[in-house]
Design brief:
mainly alpha; 10 helices
Length: 262
């Protein structure tokens, strides 16, 4: 357990980005995530919203519990004794970690906030699950695959992906166009907060400063690492993705309604 949790540093050599160990591990997580979402989503599709919401409540509790556990361990294993310093680098200001707030909002609120939170989880949950496991290549070059850092990260990202798939399969999503403003507002608020934190803490929340070995490197290289164009392009892609998701969703659902009417 001491080796798994990383106390004293990991003695094992990281298997590396896109090694078979990395791909097998994240592939297994994604498979379990997908199977559970399909089984529970189909089973609960005809149930009441309150009954469906129990799965979202469990997901919200689990994702925050795993994240709190990770932060506690990071604070305890600091060289020289426990320290709160790691908290500066574990704020919920990555696109994936916004789910730490969005999922509880979806689980425990009502009205338009609940609807917007459900939409936000649906839109970004699956994307975060893939990017945070398969795409998080830098983590598997820094830490062994079976380590607290990678295992907890993989689990929390897949909880987000599970919740997104479950919401869609169980028909909990709303995707009302009137809620797009709230969805945009949530994202822009966190982007601004992330950028301020990056400047203040010299960090790279939301990957607004650099790609850091993630697929964002492609965009970073396209704009030549420009300190203004790069973060604006990242935020722009987020906004375009939201609009595209809403557009494709309504295109598909409208066609289904037309066929049902015929």
């Amino acid at each position: 357990m001491k080796e798994f949790l990383g106390f004293g540093g990991y003695t094992r050599t990281p298997e590396g980005a896109y090694s078979w160990q990395h791909l097998l591990f994240v592939g297994s997580l994604l498979a379990v995530m997908t199977i559970l979402a399909i089984v529970l989503g189909k089973r609960n599709r005809s149930k009441t919203l309150k009954e469906k919401n129990r799965v979202i409540i469990a997901s919200a509790i689990l994702i925050d519990a795993f994240e709190i556990f990770k932060i506690v361990i990071l604070c305890l294993r600091v060289d020289g004794g426990p320290s709160l310093e790691p908290i500066k680098h574990t704020l919920p200001l990555f696109l994936c970690s916004i789910q730490l707030i969005a999922l509880p909002l979806a689980a425990f609120t009502k009205g338009r906030i609940e609807e917007a939170a459900l939409d936000f989880v649906s839109i970004f949950g699956l994307l975060g699950a893939v990017f945070g496991t398969v795409g998080a290549a830098q983590n598997y070059g820094c830490y062994p695959v079976l380590s607290m850092d990678n295992v907890v990260s993989g689990i929390t990202h897949c909880i987000s992906g599970f919740a997104a798939l479950y919401i869609m399969i169980s028909k909990m999503e709303r995707m009302r166009k009137s809620n797009m403003v709230i969805t945009y507002g949530i994202l822009i608020f966190f982007c601004i907060a992330a950028y301020i934190a990056n400047i203040t803490l010299d960090y790279n929340y939301m990957f607004l400063m650099a790609g850091d070995g993630t697929p964002y490197d492609i965009l970073y290289n396209l704009v030549g690492g420009n300190k203004v164009l790069y973060p604006m392009s990242v935020v722009g892609l987020f906004l375009i993705y939201i609009a595209a998701f809403y557009g494709i969703f309504h295109l598909i659902t409208d066609k289904k309604k037309e066929k049902a009417a015929v």
